[in-house]
Design goal:
CATH class: Alpha Beta
Shape: globular
Number of strands: 11
Strand order of the largest sheet: 9-8-7-10-6-1-4-5-11
CATH topology: Rossmann fold
Oligomer: single chain
Number of helices: 6
Strand content: 25-35%
CATH superfamily: HUPs
Order of helices and strands: EEEHEHEHEHEEEEHEH
Radius of gyration: 21 Å
Structural class: alpha/beta
CATH architecture: 3-Layer(aba) Sandwich
Length: about 250
């Protein structure tokens, strides 16, 4: 069975994001970029499935700018077998919207015919949490979202997923789209020998036009602003004073 894993290039989670002075967007100049952490978990899970003999091949795909090659090489250094880069933007500040990504991925799935698609549940830059669900709808496949445990058995996937009330375990038929959550696993670090080997692994490059998809954004960002600074707290001397302060603030 083949496992397909979409990965996204995002600002590294350790970097403090800064807004441009003209509020036109986020400043990406000289900013460290890395693989979306949720996608990294998906890559790790796919590799574990291969190591367990459940999967035969792990293919990673990224949709965005040419610089996403670095992200794909990282995934191959972790253990993915090959990669596909779909160039859908020239400007690193252009964020491809979830529907366009899902449409391109649907075309990739038609070509690759994987048994399962493992996605991160969301990207940490836009927090859309929509691509996996949209892909499932476009393909007409079953889906399991927010997976904290995953087991592939016969022609089905058993997914333990996080919901508001705790954990829910579902069984979905394959092929399926599974989106993964933080608690699924701990991604491995790519060793230096594997980083060198990744440079020789096949990385195919295509464009959105090759799939007949127009990735032009449908949303326009009018302005971007830093979140409001949190107001300082105050110390109260009694419960009565606390209640009084809360009433004044309109919290009670």
């Amino acid at each position: 069975m083949k496992v397909l894993v979409p990965v996204k290039r995002v600002i590294d989670y350790n970097v403090k994001v800064r807004v441009k002075a003209d509020q036109s967007g986020v400043d990406l100049a000289n900013v460290k970029m890395s693989m979306n952490p949720f996608d990294e978990i998906a890559v790790e899970q796919a590799i574990r499935l291969k190591e367990a003999g459940t999967a035969d091949e792990v293919v990673v795909v990224s949709i965005g700018v040419k610089q996403s090659q670095e992200t794909l090489r990282t995934a191959m250094a972790m253990g993915a077998d090959r990669a596909l880069l779909v160039v859908a933007a020239d400007n690193v500040e252009t964020d491809i919207e979830p529907l366009a990504v899902a449409k391109i991925l649907a075309k990739v799935v038609e070509e690759e015919q994987p048994g399962v698609v493992l996605c991160g549940k969301q990207a940490i830059d836009n927090d859309m949490n929509a691509t996996g669900q949209m892909l499932s709808a476009l393909l007409g496949w079953s889906q399991g979202t927010f997976a904290s445990e995953l087991e592939l058995k016969d022609d089905a996937a058993i997914v333990s997923r996080e919901v508001d009330g705790g954990l829910q375990t579902i069984k979905v038929s394959l092929p399926s789209v599974i989106t993964v959550d933080l608690r699924l696993n701990e991604p491995r670090y790519a060793s230096l020998p594997n980083i060198m080997k990744a440079k020789k692994k096949p990385l195919e490059e295509k464009t959105a036009a090759d799939y007949g998809i127009d990735p032009t954004p449908r949303l326009e960002v009018l302005s971007t602003a830093e979140p409001a600074e949190r107001a300082a707290g105050i110390i109260v001397g009694s419960v009565d004073e606390l209640v009084s302060k809360l009433k004044e603030a309109g919290a009670v």
